[in-house]
Amino acid sequence: MSEFKNIKRFTSGTDMTAAAGFVVDNGVVKEADIVDLFDRSEYIVFPGFCDVHVHFREPGFSYKETMKTGSMSAARGGYTAVCAMPNLKPVPDSVEHIKEEIAIIDKDACINVYPYASITVNEAGEELSDMEGLAPLSIAFSDDGRGIQDEAMMREAMIKAKSLGKMIVAHCEVNDLLHGGYIHDGVYAKEHGHRGICSESEWKEIERDVKLSEETGCAYHVCHISTKESVDIIRKAKARGVDVTCETGPHYLLMTDEDLKEDGRFKMNPPLRSAEDRAALIEGIKDGTIDMIITDHAPHSAEEKSRGLEKSAMGIVGLETAFASLYTGLVKTGVISLEKLIDLMVYAPRKRFNIPLNADDYCIWDLNREYTVDPEEFLSMGHATPFEGMKLFGRCLLTVCGGKIAYIER
Fold first, then answer.
1. With contact defined as beta carbons under 8 Å apart, do 328 and 392 qualify?
2. Is the pTM of this model over 0.70?
3. List 51, 185, 296, 343, catalytic entry
4. What is the reported pLDDT for 168?
5. 366 in catalytic set
6. Among 6, 69, 188, 317, which is most exposed with the fewest C-beta within 10 angstroms?
């Protein structure tokens, strides 16, 4: 991977000081501070990570997360660019509404935040949003959190997005197949008496949308795939030349429904699937069917996540554990190379979403640092993570965005 030449290893703070300038709002960080921070062990410089699927909850739900805390959390995880999903209040379904979100981004974000616009008014799936007016202000169109149930509506959206040169990014879920489920319809659900979500509720809508993308020529991206059937459908569509890409999350690659506990920190949508699904996802990562890894960072209040598997809100946080969990679980175990992981977290998402990578956007990691995940250390307001208590390798020491420090370990 030719881009990997941009990644550099250093073994002393002096080397690091010679390699890059560290600028903050009130001046330049002193060389002595750099040596003190980085003279611990070998460390490595990566280009800034990019996550095209996060929820920063503003405007409308600042008790869960704010633009400030969400972007700080991202910076602590090594990210310099993220795309913020539109399930907000107000939903960014008009120019007026998205400008409200952009004003908050401009005021409070410490990294680059690109807002999505919704596909439909209020994400209700019944009427197209002001796609023409929103196109110049948004990264893409999505009704994330809700699948568009009506095929004719999705076709109309794709035709319009195609005419505007924008991508449709879809949360795929057939509501009629959910039957009140809240975890995977698998081993754990059967053994513990929980209502399950079948895999078909995901892949059936992907199957429909892939055909619509092929019919309309619209660029199409599938959110957080979790099933073996989804991988197969997308693999075959790519082979036919359909303009489709997809993403998955660290938890789907590293856990299964057999890892579930009676705790809301294991509840997300889509849910953790079977070991067979996890194996298919890893194969999809290896063969290029799955293009990128996202976190689907979705913070909720402690109270909303304290109600167990059945009644807790759907969603977990992930920005501060993503790289370390994947490096520990996939790279150190030899499943994929470090180069492959960086492509999945840096280059592939930026290429598909046309997000620039500047020379002054990077992060510095100590890959030898082992630690136990403690959500109380998170900068995110959300603390619900299935990785709590796990021992991981890899600690972000510093993130620079636009030449300015977005995060530095204290």
1. yes
2. yes
3. 296
4. 98
5. no
6. 6
